[in-house]
Each structure stands twice: as C-alpha cells, then as structure tokens.
C-alpha cells in the first residue's frame, strides 16, 4: 500500500490510469478528500507514478505582491513549492498584470501548492490551484465555475486568465477538463518543466483551452470536444490573422502571441 492508501503496482501503472483524488490543500491535510475541490488529474498523462519525491521546497505567502489566501476559509497563509516553480509563478503574475490591463493584484485565493499527494505534481511542489484573483480596481477573476456557471462576462475573464496561465504552464486544466476542476484552475510544469513550449494539437488539454478562448474571448463558434478539427483550426487561424500573428501556433512565439492576445482582450 502507498501512503495515500491506494494499492498501485508497476503493472497497473502501465496498463491503466488511476483516478487520483484530492486537490492540493493545507499541508497537514495530505492525501485527504476535500469535497468539491478533490480530483486533480495532474501527473503527465502517459507517465503516472505512485508517488513523487518532493523537490527542495520554499515557503511563499504572496504572489505578484498580493497575499495568498486559502480559498476554503479565506485565511491568509503561506504555502510551499519548489523555488524555481515559485519563480515561474512570479513571472506569470508580472506578465498577467502587464497584459491584462486590470492593474496590480491585491489578493490571490488558492487551494494550495505542495501537498503530500501520491502521483501528483503537487507532491513535487510543482503545481498550484487558482481560486480567485482580486485586482486593485476591485475586479475579481474567478475560477469558481461551480458558483457562477454560464455567465458570459465571468467566462470571458476566466478564459483570459486561463490563456495567460497556459503561456507559462503546459498543463493548465480548466472546468472543461473534468468536473473536478469546476472550482479551480490547476497548473503544473510536469511535462514542460522550466523550458518554453508551443501548442500541441494532439493535446486534449491544449485544444480544450484554445476552444474555450476562441468561444468566450474571441466569440468564435467552435465545439468543446478537445479535438483540433477544421472549424477550430480555421477559427484559430482567423484570430491569428486578425492580430497579425504570423508564427505557427506550434512555435513558442506563435503560441505566446496567441495567448497574449487572448489575455489582453477586452
């Protein structure tokens, strides 16, 4: 038995994907279930392992100069993560503030970063779950799809944020990924690490994000099926042309330019 109580063998790991329960939460709540925020599917999809070794962790209590709050209680507190991952988060925060036009961050609510959760990038301190961002002008960008549902203005802000995150973190999991992500956006760098990357049309995660951005930020009529079919491809190309993006989405430059256009759209 592993520490989380799930019996996992190498044979099973290579023949099927285990359902991993429990989003990141307070460090003392390792391996537990936390109601609606349980269920991150955040290990590399083809390379799940039973447990991940924590990397050297550092404590951080702010992001982009804003205090971190535990989304469940609203309490300000610190969280632990790999220091290089914290640097990535800070680079994202600076980029988001610069591109979004919403002003400085004043609060960031989260379900957590490092947690002793077997099979998860949270265990390595290389994952983070976003709840709500608050900006200086009072604007809130909420990832709580579970509380507001099909609200167009909120969806536009949500997908602008998701686009910004996807520029920095290869795995950006939204409410479209599965029901377990209806109350937060999960990010990790489990596949890309600390390297740059472009769009992967074979990645369901990437395509779902592009389809959400195309529909709710750019107003394009595309499906939400996770497949890079002709209608999605054509809509993406139209947006690229509209914004003067000449690089391919598969390139780091083209992907970044597309996502910046989405994050900065008003």
Automatic annotation (TrEMBL):
Q: Report the source organism.
A: Tessaracoccus lubricantis
List UniProt keywords, sorted A-Z: Signal
* Signal peptide positions on this chain: 1-29
Which stretches make up the Extensin-like C-terminal domain? Answer: 118-189
Note the InterPro entries from the entry. Extensin-like_C
Q: What is this protein called?
A: Extensin-like C-terminal domain-containing protein
